[in-house]
Amino acid sequence: MIVKGVLLAVCIAVTGSNRAEESIVLDDHDELPPIILVPGFTGCSIENKLTGKKGTPSCPTDTKDWEVLWLEASELSMNPVCFLENIVMNIKTSSDGEFESFANVEGETIRPRDFGGVDGMCYLDKNKTLSSFYLQVVQYFTKEGWVVGTNLFGAPYDWRMGGNRYDDYFNDLKELIENATETTGKRAVIFAHSMGPSVILEFLYSMTIAWKQENIAAFMAVAPVWSGNVLSVWNAASGLDCKSAFGAHCPGGEGALTKAFLREIGANIPASFWTFPMRGSDSDNYTWSDTEVIVSTPNKNYTAYDMPEMFRDLGLDTSAEMNEIIQNSSAKNRFLPPLVDTHVFYGYGVKTPARFIYNISFNKQPLPPQAIDIDYGPESDYGDGAAPLRSSLRSNSYEWRLVQDRHMKQLTHRGYKGMSHSNTIEPLPDIVAIIKKIREGDARNQSDYRNHTML
Length: 455
Known about the structure:
- The protein has 455 residues and is α/β, with parallel strands linked by helices.
- It has helices at residues 3-14, 73-78, 80-87, 119-122, 134-143, 169-184, 196-205, 209-215, 231-238, 242-246, 259-266, 270-274, 307-313, 317-327, 330-333, 389-392, 398-406, 428-440, and strands at residues 35-38, 46-50, 67-70, 90-93, 99-103, 108-112, 152-154, 188-193, 216-222, 293-296, 301-303, 342-348, 355-357, 373-375, 411-417, 453-454.
- The strands form four sheets. A seven-stranded parallel beta sheet has the order 7-1-8-9-12-15-16. It has a four-stranded mixed beta sheet with strand order 11-10-13-14, with helices on one face. A three-stranded antiparallel beta sheet has the order 3-2-6, with helices on one face.
- A hairpin with a 4-residue loop joins strand 10 and strand 11.
- Helix 9 (231-238) packs across helix 11.
């Protein structure tokens, strides 16, 4: 896997659940509402096409057709320089130096693999050797009666951008949902994981209330990182240690994605900074204040407010600029209720990194420094191992509950003790139960699922 994506999605391919799920079989698939699956960071395969690409002379400049970029381990190991050049993003500015967008290397086009289908989410490579946890999700839903291509669809995207979209993803997603609701005669359920819920929030903000009422039955946010996480910082600063973070080697095998390599990706993809800890205040229980240290070195401590300075100390000036662009964007700083029935499922009680400690100061070292210790913070903020509890529960604020209630929209939170970030199987019986009530048309009257948090 990759960068910080490795961060939230290494979980994708590194771990899985062996839980024996309760089965709630819904017999007639014609009666089931369509489900749209949305991945998180690095949670789907992406492919690229080169046409006169500008870059390193030894790298290919043209391809005959679309080729898998994320993640073909053999291609990665054979030519890592070209892979890095193709997967990182650049800052595009106007003639007067103003920021315009994030862009690929000139001559490269990137798209998600198998939009509308599920293969690009279930498998990260075309030979289907690197499966993600979405394979289990799809298998579960199909066992419960859904049919891929009929009422079960994948909505993968170029996850490198995070929620700041500079492509046609929202238009494509809107069309997919409308087609699904038209062909099934039922409103759609959106199932999103990790960074996916934040991307879906941006999508829902761009839709009218009337459109949402007509097309969206419910929004299922699984293991959301609403406020960010500290693992992203670790990866962008020094490269994620998959074994330390998740207890297993990175996808592609030990050494296939070294920590230095992961740092190179994590420090040069907008989505890394999209999931950085959200800057807030001591009075805000869901963000990080300017006094809460998340990286410590012998001569300097860094808070969520000090990330640009940290990257400059590391000699990563472009990363510092990219981080500032994301952190100051309106998309990153707004967190409004979606105004659709929303159900949040999260893990808690798993030791979740809160601070990384280094024994050397950052001084533009040629190789990334390595953390020598991890502070897991207070047990009260133990989340799912990647997202701290404060991040997952940001949607449980008084403001969200008040606005959702005023618009007669559900907002529920259901916690699972010991559930890791990549364990999307455990909530599935509860999700199917909620969908069953939607199907029966009486979800609004089910007090068991009405605005509550369950730990």
